[in-house]
Design brief:
By secondary structure, the protein is mostly helical. The protein contains 10 helices and no strands.
Length: about 220
């Protein structure tokens, strides 16, 4: 009986959890604006209705509409947000629950907004810090690949005509050139596969959570 109850519960949860691709910048703006409106003394439902009227993103407009329906039906804000796990993570929901329980929802939204802004800033710093080294590495790899594929093969025949023992370093480079030409198709397929896996991982909620934790622990701000 317990097993069937768990299965039914998981099926219900899977049908009620709704997944939308909402820009994180828009999510941060919503939290900040909601905190400002609540801090100004507006009612929760009125605040979300006002933000919904100003929203130009169709999917988020629909999300806010569903949240309003839940709130008017008597659900708490945290329970309404819980239907969208990819928009509001456990950290977000827990602070909202604390805010509702203590009557300090505006303060909790301020903390959430402050945290989101810090994480976003750290991510920008991380991208900026890695952009130049990544560009240098890509240019170096592209240059080396061009040399191995197009430059060295023109000299390979000349080296063989000398019929002399080549330095071990030259032999290694020529061997790399031959292998690269032989397995070029396999390497391209592997690179495409890796790019596809990285794209899938980027959409993973678990990976995004791990990247957020990494950004928070970075030594610079």
């Amino acid at each position: 009986m317990n097993i069937w109850s768990m299965i039914i519960k998981n099926q219900i949860k899977s049908t009620t959890d709704k997944h939308y691709r909402i820009p994180t910048k828009l999510q941060r703006a919503f939290s900040r604006d909601l905190e400002i409106l609540l801090g100004a003394g507006l009612h929760l439902v009125d605040s979300i209705e006002l933000l919904r009227k100003q929203c130009k993103h169709q999917e988020f407009y629909d999300v806010l509409g569903d949240i309003l329906i839940d709130l008017k039906a008597g659900k708490s804000l945290a329970d309404s947000f819980a239907c969208y796990p990819n928009l509001f993570n456990n950290f977000y929901l827990n602070l909202i629950r604390v805010g509702e329980a203590t009557g300090q929802l505006s303060d909790m939204l301020f903390r959430i907004t402050d945290y989101q802004e810090k994480v976003a800033g750290l991510k920008r710093n991380l991208v900026q810090a890695l952009s130049y080294p990544a560009l240098v590495v890509l240019v170096a790899i592209a240059s080396l690949t061009f040399i191995l594929l197009f430059v060295l093969p023109t000299f390979e025949g000349l080296f063989r005509e000398f019929d002399a023992d080549l330095p071990w370093l030259t032999q290694i480079v020529l061997y790399m050139s031959e292998q690269l030409q032989a397995y070029l198709g396999v390497l391209i397929a592997a690179m495409l596969l890796i790019c596809g896996l990285l794209w899938l991982f980027r959409r993973s909620k678990a990976l995004n959570s791990m990247l957020d934790k990494l950004a928070v622990n970075l030594p610079f701000s």
